[in-house]
Specification:
The structure is a single chain. The protein is of the alpha+beta class and 155 residues long. The chain folds into two domains: 5-65; 77-154, Glutaredoxin. The chain is 49% helix and 12% strand. The protein contains seven helices and four strands. The protein has helices spanning 5-19, 26-37, 42-52, 56-65, 85-89, 92-103, 144-154; strands spanning 77-82, 115-120, 132-134, 137-139. A four-stranded mixed β-sheet has the order 2-1-3-4, with helices on one face. The longest helix has 15 residues, at 5-19. The two termini are 18 Å apart. The structure holds FE2/S2 (inorganic) cluster (FES). FE2/S2 (inorganic) cluster binds at residues 82, 84-87, 122-126, 129, 131.
Length: 155
Amino acid sequence: MPEDDREIRERVRGLISETGRERTQLLEVLHKVQKEFRHVPRAAAEAIEQEMLVPVAETYGVVTFYDLLSEKPVGRKVLRICEDVTCSLHGSEQLAAQAEQLLGPEGAQSRNGEVSWTRCACLGLCDKAPAALCDEEPLAPLTSAAIRKIGEDHA
Ligand code: FES
């Protein structure tokens, strides 16, 4: 159910007051917003502008730069499949194709809204390629069976 913008602004003000109003806290505030709303809604960016004096455009610049933040709602669980060189050489693209088949289009929520998947840059797990993160848990090497299990458990 879509949340009321006023309620979102109120909840974001609460997150800002427990984190800090300084610009240097922006990333931490955005991570909390992402966790709470599964994306950074426009109303949240507006609350950040009012409370932290960071323009909405600047907030979305940060959101689009970081893989862990998103403009559109993502699932409760997010699978991030590394597409960088080493993982690509170890079959990450085939695994991404499998994720698309089982979990739905990249960046979208699965039918039940529980899971999303996306490609990402190097996760620092190249020695275990192909690598992925499921929320904060490393899945390396990522296997077809692991993707199937996520699909069975969550999609
Ligand atoms: S290239 Fe995939 S984890 Fe480094």
